[in-house]
Amino acid sequence: MSNIAYFPAMPPREDNRPGKRERTKTANRQAILDAARQVFGELGYDGATVRDIIRLTGLASGTFYNYYKSKEEVFDALADDGARRFRPLLRVEFEKATDFASFLRGAMRAYFEFLAAEHETWRVNRPAGETHPQVRATPEVTAVFGEVREAFERVLEREHAPPVDLDYLTAACIAVAREVGDKMLERRPMDTQGATAFAVGLILGGLPALPRP
């Protein structure tokens, strides 16, 4: 008799990999987002249609509508995806920061560089001055707010700074970043360094600290 018979049977390994159906759904969503990013960049948000996005994915129209009902939903999903991928960059800047000013500068620079990279197709194909639609408060965008607020709280504690309304501070800094970023996207060339210098100067020093044109 084989010695193998004396060893207890090993329990089957647990397979934590997603099933084929789940992998297909993930791949379809990613194909739609990749196509939408390219279509919005080439045609502009207003000029793009759901049909343009579907055509680029190679998926059936019914498949598209299993995931998204409109181009507005796709745009929100792109914003959510971008915020999710930006959050690790934000954490890196927090780990490098020595005080509030260094975190603010690093976070702003990382945001504007990320924004410019995300809109490379837009930069190449869309005319200067064309506005970009506002991003709504998707779950991942809301999570970014929470991470920025927590980072502000911790760096200010390190400095023993006087108490400040963290909700207002976070909202104000994000609003500046968003509005300056939108204007940066309209310009040619997109100047990430100029956007960073302006936003950081405005927040830290007000009008007297702003770079002069």
Automatic annotation (TrEMBL):
The UniProt record lists the keyword Membrane: no
Stretches the record annotates as Disordered: 1-26
Feature: compositional bias, Basic and acidic residues: 12-25
Molecular function GO labels: DNA-binding transcription factor activity; transcription cis-regulatory region binding
Keywords: DNA-binding, Transcription, Transcription regulation
SUPFAM superfamilies per the UniProt record, alphabetical: Homeodomain-like
Matching InterPro entries: Homeodomain-like_sf, HTH-type_TetR-like_transc_reg, HTH_TetR
Domain HTH tetR-type: 26-86
Protein name as it appears in the record: TetR/AcrR family transcriptional regulator
Organism: Caulobacter endophyticus
